[in-house]
Amino acid sequence: xTTTTASPATRGSALADRLxxxxxxxxxxxVIGLVVLVAIFTALDPxxxxxxxxxxxxxxxxxxxxxxxxxxFVILTAGIDLSIASTMTFAAVTFGMAMTSGKGLALSxxxxxxxxxxxxxxxxFLIAKGGITDFIVTLGALSAASGLALILSDGRPITVISxxxxxxxxxxxxxxxxxxxxxxAVAVLAHLVLFSTPFGTHVLAxxxxxxxxxxxGVRTARIKMAVYLIAGVLAGLAAILLVARVGSAEPAANxxxxxxxxxxxxxxxxxxxxxxxxxxxxxxxxxLLTALANGLTLLGVSQFYQPLAVGIxxxxxxxxxxxxx
Length: 325
What we know:
It is a single chain. The chain is mainly α and 325 residues long. The protein is 74% helix and 2% strand. It contains 14 helices and 4 strands. The chain has a two-stranded antiparallel ribbon. Strands 2-3 form a two-stranded antiparallel ribbon. A hairpin with a 2-residue loop joins strand 2 and strand 3. The protein starts with 7 loop residues before the first helix and ends with a helix. The mean pLDDT is 89. It comes from Aeromicrobium tamlense. It is found in: Cell membrane.
């Protein structure tokens, strides 16, 4: 038996062809952008790659990573969840109330996840069964969840004092915080669900074409309900990490997490039209946005410029998707 191997010239030509395809830059935009940012910020300030700063960035990226994974499932079905950050705030308040009423850590965690799941389930039901546009439903849920958080807490932060939560937030293996490990575990599980199960195939099929998916027997309504439920559950999990990090349940809406969760998904190469994308892309997108904010802060750039920088990066990534077939 004879085997043939490509010559270096052939491999070089194939690589050049790959680099000329917009889809390559869309798929790897977050990874390449992260490498470029690390190189620039390290050159401008060597403290950027210090162990303490790396740990701080990984800690800061954990919550956004989990939200981006949840948002990815929704966007892969050609939807969007504008309520994901408010759902996290609502779940954080229920978690804080459960903790302060003596329910214990385990039961309080279940309360937070259940609160997030309830919002996600309502979103999914109204979109899939009610036939209401996802933008309108989740925009309404954004307001409703924020309002419920303010009503339940009477507009005041709920202080949560818990040694296990403090250990969860402050501890880790070397430079890698526990919360980041949880976020990576969520991402790995999401990747397996998306690409190794029939459910994941149905998610991609629903996003690619609802009519075609229904013609092959996919129950697209159930799939849409499921992805909003997943986003809600992950918002509940993120709420626990948020309370552990801050030490209190803040009822104020945090729109930065909403915008950055969508931005991370766009940077990660997930198609806003659904049906195409990955989990690793949004994870690197979340890391990129965290590194961008951290690097600008380290350089002493005013926080007022950070949303502007994030906006420019996201629009640039979205511009790349314009050329993707």
